[in-house]
Specification:
Largest sheet: none
InterPro entries: DUF4296 (IPR025381)
Shape: elongated
Protein name: DUF4296 domain-containing protein
Number of helices: 6
Radius of gyration: 28 Å
Number of strands: 0
Distance between the termini: 104 Å
Structural class: mainly alpha
Pfam families: DUF4296
Order of helices and strands: HHHHHH
Strand content: under 5%
Mean pLDDT: 83
């Protein structure tokens, strides 16, 4: 039993003493502000894809490629930059906090537009109802 415990401790010590190699900073590292924009668009893509999967599969559109083209990057550059930023918890947290804030801001904007559109529809309905009530009163008189 002592040998097993000793062996486990020694193996644990070796595992703990291994050097952790950091990812080198890519030459074409995507700047943080641009990375936030890319991540925001990718989050919107994932949300829309999960909302209507069949629409995406029917059209067979490679939207990620379009997003990469929009920002002048490729998938390799994105992957390397993403891995580089992921190694530093604070930087990664800052990136994703910024993405979350942007998504929340965009959602609030969309919600306000939907509310305004609903108000206009309701106002039109009320106007039609009032007009039809006036017409029926005239017909009854």
């Amino acid at each position: 039993m002592k040998k097993v415990v000793f062996t486990v401790l020694v193996l644990g010590l070796f595992a703990a003493c291994q050097s952790v190699e950091k990812t080198e900073k890519p030459e074409n590292l995507i700047p943080e502000d641009k990375m936030i924009e890319v991540l925001t668009d990718l989050a919107k893509l994932d949300a829309s894809r999960s909302y209507n999967e069949t629409s995406f599969s029917k059209r067979d559109v490679k939207i990620k490629k379009l997003i990469y083209a929009k920002y002048g990057i490729d998938s390799t550059q994105f992957a390397k930059s993403s891995n580089y930023y992921a190694e530093d918890f604070n930087v990664n947290q800052r990136l994703y906090d910024s993405v979350r804030v942007r998504l929340e801001r965009d959602k609030a904007r969309v919600d306000a537009l939907i509310k305004k559109e609903d108000s206009l529809k309701n106002a039109k309905k009320q106007a039609i109802i009032k007009k039809s009530e006036k017409l029926s009163k005239k017909e009854n008189n």
